[in-house]
What does this fold into?
Amino acid sequence: MTTRSARSSAPVEGLREALRAHGAWAGVPLEVLADTGLAHLHVRLVGTGVLARIPKQSQVGLEPAANLHHQQACFARAQAGGHTPRLLGVLPVGQGLPRGALLVQEIAGRPADLPRDLDAVAQALAALHALPLPRAQDRPPLQDAGDPLRQLHAEIAAQAAFVPRAGLPVEVHDAVRTELEALAACVALPDRPPRCLVAFDAHPGNFLLRGSGDAVLVDLEKCRYSYPGLDLAHASLYTSTTWDVTARAVLTPAEVAGFYRRWERAVDTGLAAAARPWHLPLRRAMWLWSITWCCKWRTASAGPRRDPGHGEDWSAANSDEALVRHVRERVDHYLSPQAVASVLDELARLPRMLAP
It folds into this structure.
């Protein structure tokens, strides 16, 4: 067994015990992968093609058992689209694994290379969005708000409560306030786009490219029934394409517009036509969600680690120091006047490029 830090050794020992109780894969060598995400520790079951996802916290605010059940549903439902890992097993919450773990297919592939892989990312998202919408009673435990746009506005407003404590420059604070007002006005309108299964965490760093050229979305814990434009935004916003160390690129407005058109060509023409008027409003909303999250993380990461019985926990104590330094640098950058001005400039230029 290889361990990366003291933080990873205890859950890996718990994983070993849980695998022994599970029966399958007991005694296989375990290899802890580099700590690259704020929500999970990943452990390879060497030679099996299986990856264990051990939660550090719940990004959707659920207690451990409910969070594990939610993640199980995310993987089980998305895998029908053919562009996500297969769910292979679930290790329950226990003393050694206080948040449980999922066993999923390990995807052999390389990081996304933008803009070259935008076609593949668009195809993968189109396959997810094309999945049949289940009956309302079959959608839990995934979020299925009566009005997903109003729910999104409420989430952003809750994150915006951290804005006063985030130490923002005046121009950034004013931009956030302006976008909040614009989103509230959008919510007040009666129209809504069609809903479908969305990842809600489709930034390029969460995709791997197989040798065949197909893109696979490997992180699915935040799936919900909402609007496809949120995934399209998250896959192509500056705050997403420059987040990950291994999949970093700055897209031009023309490349962004081309990405949206590729998605439209890959989905049903009815869905494409209904979603098109919402590309920009949802792009603005997703950016607002991202930068208010940055304000939240800047504040909450300074706190101590919470008891595993809690759900959400952004404490920096949960992750390796190198990852925390990376996230802090990205958060500081995204909340800078220069980065905010760059995104607003792109948003001002896109309407003409996205016009049919």
